[in-house]
Amino acid sequence: MTKITETLKVATRWKFWKELIVMTLGMMVTAAAVYYFLLPSKLIIGTISGLSIVLMNIFAKFGITVSLSLIITVINIILLVLAYLLIDHEFGVKTVYTALILGPLTDFWAWVKPWQELAVLDADNNPISVMGDPWFDLCCFVLLLSAAQAILFRINASTGGLDILAKIVNKYFHFDIGASVSIAGACICCTAFFINPFRMVIIGLIGTWINGLVVDYFTASLNRRKRICIVSKDYDRIRLYIINQLGRGCTLYEVIGGYTNEKSIELEALLTKDEFSNLLNWMKNNDIHAFSTASNVSEVYGLWLQHHKKRKELEMR
What we know:
alpha+beta; Alpha-Beta Plaits; four-stranded antiparallel sheet; 12 helices
């Protein structure tokens, strides 16, 4: 009874619905990338979607017509069962949700706008692919997929499939998680030999590598913070503004000027880009004279983030 009550409490919070909406939109972008850029060009990137396209084409050679949506869903269900049996439930509820909606969402995009209507035609008026060139298709797919993955990673979710496979490799073959993702992705790329020429397989391998780089870039951009250092006689007014208005903490240091040999107080804080902009505008409007420096910080861990999340949750209730 307690678990049911806790589940209902979670389901009534804005944070739950916000993350559900973000996951759904992220998977819609992922499904669009698969349907419009991966499927028409038969590019096989190191993803479960890529493996599904290989299987779909192999079935087609034997005269068996199976939809991409169905294959993606079946593979993800098998992986989720394996994860439940082999990874001690570490895959999480979010991964279950994202893994199961990817297949149906590819059908959704096929209903909205079939890729054949957007495709570049060859000399015989047959559709080739949306961009008409495998490299352009690859770039569009990687940009859309990486952006979606970065957004999902930010809320501790994922696109499913390959992440589960990577965790299985990680647990039983003792590779680190990054190497596990690369190995699982490379193995899927190599299945493209069943349907694609050597050149297309190499493009797929390159695309898998580029996808990892772009995901890292997007993730770092989303998590970026500003580390500011301010020296001012009005440091206490600045401190109160950061604490009371921005909801952040700060640290004070006693410093000595190298030129004047005067003692001063330096204030240091970690802010988001918008908070940093608000602080500068506030200082300008209140005629506060200060010497300020700012640098980028890729990631922040610890109490800074926890306190801010708790404050946001309380404000939303």
